[in-house]
Give the backbone structure.
Amino acid sequence: MVLPGHWRFDIASQLNRSPEPLTRRFRETFISDPVVGNPKGDTAVEWKQRLQYKTLYPFMNKREVALQSFKKLNKDVSFGNTIKTEDKFESLMSDLKEFPERFVDSKEITNEMRELLPLADKAFNDTLDIISQTSREGWKEVARFRKKNYIPHVHSQPKLNNYLTEYGREQVEEVYKNSLRSMKGDLGEKTFNLLIKRMIDKISSPNFLGKESDLARVFQGTNEVAIREFLEDIDLNVEQINAILAKIKKGSGNTLDRNANRRLPFDLNARTDVKNLKTNKIESLSVKDITERNLTKLLRTYNTQVLGQAAMARFGNFNTNKDYKNFLLKLETREKDFPNQKLYRDKENIEVIVTSLTGRQSPLEKGGDPNGFMRRAVRFIQDYNFLRLFVKLICSRCRIIQWY
């Protein structure tokens, strides 16, 4: 929204008017001014939007054709409803992506679904290639040691919370303990149990939104810096973290696992018998059951988070989450140099931009804010020009369709 004179209610104009040079520099590199543009070239938001379209479009364009072929094949089979039919399709596509050898002669898979598979491969691989070419910590190892049929094991928070309700906290912890049992002897019971407890606390928390890809690389292989950052994020102390890293470096002795000394050695397929508290039936659960198996949702979530992190490194030199946190702390400490300027609002706007860029929980969605309603109302006005930027980007990308 542009009002008469110089009054504008949008994030870019607010950051432009900041007396803090770091804030103005952040605006120039991360978000284009929706009115005058950005004469210095791509910003982080534009760069990510362009690459996201390029990496996802071929897959998304073919997906509907594959889905319709699956529905046609199963027109006489009842999955319950349309949503369950699509869930079945997505689950099969995830299994086909990860274990193609199991479906060589399968009649469950249509030709169109098989044609969709290489497009999913390319989307995941292109996403990893992009971030591996930046300075973002931990991703070069993920890309370098990826498996042939790489698919990230991203936790599904709704699934975990549902299992916590069905089986109870104690039984779900046992599932994780069984999956990571190879570490118990080296860590000792106290540290081992605390690691499991804190991990489940983190995954089931609303603050986990947008951090799924960070946890996935810790499960599948990364570097020491990234693993240490994750362990610090779940509030383990230095002694506990060093003990865990020492065990990881020692490896599991499995010569077939190229990532054995670069990840937490979870056996995702290890199953544990659990009692359903609602039905009193004994069932079986593994950590893999708690991961996202909807291929399209997985790909889109992973792509937006990973490319967001790539943009953070490329445009802001934020190579770790800690680098970004230190940047915000630096802004806070410099508030005293600009009295009566309300720099905390600049910090809030920066947080809104970064959470949108990386797919994380917006600070406006966190509880405990007595003025939350008013802040949301004002944000709708502020974001008007911000959204105009995205519309302009999307329209400019429409020309690309003819290339495919």
Observations:
- The chain has three domains: 11-41+320-403, 46-148, 157-291.
- The radius of gyration is 23 Å.
